[in-house]
Design goal:
- By secondary structure, this protein is of the alpha+beta class.
- The chain has two domains: 17-76, Arc Repressor Mutant, subunit A; 85-268, GAF domain (Beta-Lactamase).
- Helices cover 46% and strands 17% of the residues.
- The protein has helices at 17-31, 38-45, 49-61, 78-108, 150-156, 161-171, 184-197, 242-259, 265-274, and strands at 65-67, 74-76, 111-118, 121-128, 143-145, 200-203, 210-218, 224-233.
- Strands 5-4-3-8-7-6 form a six-stranded antiparallel β-sheet, sandwiched between helices.
- A hairpin with a 6-residue loop joins strand 1 and strand 2 (74-76).
- It is elongated, with a radius of gyration of 23 Å.
Length: 275
Amino acid sequence: MARVPHPKTGVSPYRVQVLDRALDILRVLGESQSDCSLAETCAALKLHKSTVHRLMMVLERHRLVEKHPDTGRYRLGLRLFELGSKAISVLDLRERSRPFLDQVLSETQETVHLCILDEGEVLYLEKLEPQRSVRLASRVGRRVPAYCTSVGKAILAELPEAEVDSIIRRSGLKRITPNTITTPSALKEELRKIRAKGYSIDDEENEEGVRCVGAVVRDYSGRPAAAISVSGPAFRVSKANVAEIAKSVTQAATALSRELGHVAPEAESISKAAS
């Protein structure tokens, strides 16, 4: 059973002292109006200098704090800004995507997912389900390999080959079902076909009996920001109706891309010609 904070004190019964102290350092630096010296931080936390110095060195190595080269004083590091920006963008993406996901759900009456690529894996951000008796086991927060999912392949198809190679080296191409792609050459050929078609298919590659159709969502710079997919039992998401489902998914992905500031090349040229 999960422990919850004490109803009166709000203090969790689970504590890791070194983590608590490291987070306290970040809090002190964040609340300070200027850079802090090691002595000031020690005084604020009532900790010995050697303890704070060790923690500062670890935090600095991870770019969570920065030490000014001239004054030796500390401030919050840019890594925190990067992490915060990523968290905000994910929340914003979920909110902006909802009308488009609702439209796809209405048109297909199958499960709709919004996913991003994170550390070489697909991370599920949103899931909308139809009122059907057969449901999928996916859930928000789940992570799966990119190479065997429609959302993952839709994103991989838009990445530079060097990035794809890096992801393959990191995650491997493990066989999950009899249909899983397990060689780099076969995967790259699949990604080439996806670029040509404009959408991807997970043909029972991640889960037997489940077929998915996905399309990439681009940000303002044209980089893949996410992907939208429709998933369902292979007897409902049949090869015969893949094209119809793909139309709904790609239209939603294109519309969400525009919402994120992406201007398609053809739309950009039309705009320039009109001006």
